[in-house]
Amino acid sequence: MIIFKKTKNKSQIKHSDNGVGVSFEVINLKNRLYNVENRILIIKGTITFDNESNKGFKTKITFPK
Questions:
Q1: With b meaning 16 or more CB within 10 Å and e meaning fewer, what string describes 12-41?
Q2: Is the separation of the CB atoms in 4 and 44 below 8 Å?
């Protein structure tokens, strides 16, 4: 599922799935998501990951409007 949300001051993108999750060793920002993280930081945004084994994977990106 992907949700796009706008408020007065910010925009938010949420992604979630109901898969088996992912090991955080696989999420190596230096190698795999470095460009994504840098682009979000350039626009003064944040990115967070939430992961529970066998309960899916979630990502939330928030940035100013």
A1: ebbeeeeeebeeeeeeeeeeeeeeeeeebe
A2: no
Range of the domain at 21: 2-64
Which residues face 56 on adjacent strands?
none
- Name the pTM for this structure: 0.73
pLDDT along the chain (65 residues), means of 10: 95 89 58 78 90 78 93
How long is the chain? 65
For residue 52, the domain's CATH number is: 3.30.565.10
